[in-house]
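Raw record, unedited: SDR family NAD(P)-dependent oxidoreductase
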Amino acid sequence: MKTILITGASSGVGLATTKILAAKGHKIIMICRNVEKALDIVENLQKEHPDYDLDVIGMDLEDLQSIVSGTKYIISKYEALDVIINNAGGIFSEREITMNGFEKAFQVNHLGHFLLTVRLLPLLLESTESRVINLSSEYHRRGKIDIDNLNGEKKFGGWMQYGNTKLMNIVFAKALANKYQSKGLNAFSVHPGVVRTGFGSNNTGLLGLFNKMPFLITPEKGAETSVFLATEDIKNLKNGGYYKSAKLASADLQAHDTDNQEKLWEKSEAMLKAKGFL
C-alpha cells in the first residue's frame, strides 16, 4: 500500500480523493489549512471506517513558512513518500499579495506546491516508484508563461491568472518528469473536469456564481483521474503526461516547451531562496 499526501484534503475533490484512496487501503497524509475541521472529518470517517489510515497535518498555501514547518515534520516522521497529489487551488478576482509578498493565485496554485514538492523530494526519491500529480485545468489553454509577470505585476485578471497558473501546473509536472525520471520519479498533470465544489465562492460577481452552474460534475467524479494516476500500473502511464477522464490528453504547446519548463523552475526556486524558504 502507498503513502499518499494530498493538499486541500478536507473538502471538494481533495476530500473525495482522500476517501477513495483510503478505502483502497492507502495511508493518506491530509494537508489542510483548517486542522480542526479536518480532524472532525477524520473522526467521523473513522467511526464508520476504522481501518482508514489518515494523518492530518496543517499547512496553508498562503503561508509559505507553514509549508517549511510542515515538510520538516513530515521528513522527521516518514521514511518515504510514494505519491503527492497537489490538489488545492483557487481563483481570485482581485490582485492580492500574500504575507510572503507573492500574488495570491501564483502562490496558492503554483509556488506553494512547488515549495512543498521540492522540499519533499528526498522522501519521494526513497520510494521505488514515486509519483507527483498536479491538478490543472483545461483553462490552461488560455494561460501564458511570462517569466516577468508571474505575480501579475504588469497585467492581471482573475481568469487570466488562473489560466496562467494552471499552465504552470502542467509545466512544473513536465519539468519534474524530465529532471528526475532517471531516479524513478513520475509526474503528471490532471484536468479533473468542471467540478461542483466551493471553487470561486470566495469571489463576488460572476466568479462567485461559478459553483451554481448546472453542468458541474460531482467531486467523486472529479477525483477519478487523480485516483487512476496514483494507483495504475506505472507501465501504463506516460511520465510527464497530461490526463483527462483517466486518459492521456494533449496539453497546450507552451507546456511542452523545455525553455518554459527550465525558466519557470529556475525563477520559482530563486524567488523562494531569496526569501529563505529553500
